[in-house]
Amino acid sequence: MADILPTAIDMDEVRARWGGFAWTEENSAKAKTVVGRYPPGRQHSAIIPLLDLAQRQVGAETQTQGWLPVPVIEYVAAYLDMPYIRAYEVATFYTMFNLRPVGRYHLQVCGTTPCMLRGSDDVFAACKAKGLSKGQTSADGLFTLNEVECLGACANAPMVQINDDNYEDLTFETMTALLEALARGETPKPGPQGVDRRTSDPEGGPTTLKEMVHENHDYREKAE
Questions:
Q1: Cα–Cα–Cα angle for 103, 104, 107, rounded to 5 degrees
Q2: Among 17, 73, 98, 149, which residue's beta carbon has the most beta carbons within 10 A?
Q3: Which mean pLDDT values do the consecutive 10-residue runs of the chain (224 residues) have?
Q4: Is 147 helix (H, G, I), strand (E, B) or coil?
Q5: Among residues 100, 151, 82, 102, which one has the least CA distance to residue 123?
């Protein structure tokens, strides 16, 4: 379940800030493209990608990962000609949507069994050592920390999703280095951290079909 709504006192400020929300010119074109993917009369099926688009627009305006104020959800629902409550049900069901402000970097640390067995407690300890608490945003507005369920990178556990990127094979030291790099305004390379592997290859590199792996790696490098 996504985070709870702001309090009633906060809602006045939220409506004052976001009551006039509308697509930017660029996002208006994207929204039309998304809705056009569905047959006539089935535009409600676009609710998830449009909520995501709206959250990203809020993020661009606030220099954060983005969230969905109630007026923004209302705007998307009206855009799709659907009841607000149906849009709200979607926003509260999927944890990809934030219902309260988050920091510039949203740290979603997996605490499910594979990550726990491989050291997710050390990842949380690194966050705590930097003054971060679960469910809270740091005083400087940079980091929001949350514990989440499986993010599908079990072979490279433990891991954290930071905004749209996954960082894997973490230790106390590598998680600390990630936080320090982000605080300096750097963009660490996603994927495994501090180990000799590419994506989900075995540590130390592949043990079989080595020539095929190297050929594919060379092809990708040329394509990039």
A1: 70
A2: 73
A3: 46 90 97 96 96 97 95 97 97 93 95 94 96 93 94 92 95 97 95 84 75 61 55
A4: strand
A5: 151
End-to-end CA distance of the chain: 38
Instruction: Give the type of residue at 16.
Output: A
> Which 3 state secondary structure label does DSSP give 43?
helix
Longest dimension (CA), the chain: 63
Please write down the HEC assignment for all residues of 73-94.
HHHHHHHCCCCHHHHHHHHHHC
Q: List, in sequence order, every residue forming a beta bridge with 146; answer none if it has no partner.
A: 108
| Token pair 């949350």: residue | 146
Tokens read off for 11: 């809602």
Where helices occur in the chain by DSSP H, the ranges are 8-18, 25-35, 47-62, 70-79, 84-93, 113-117, 120-129, 172-183, 210-223
Q: Whole-angstrom Cα distance, residue 77 to residue 28?
A: 15
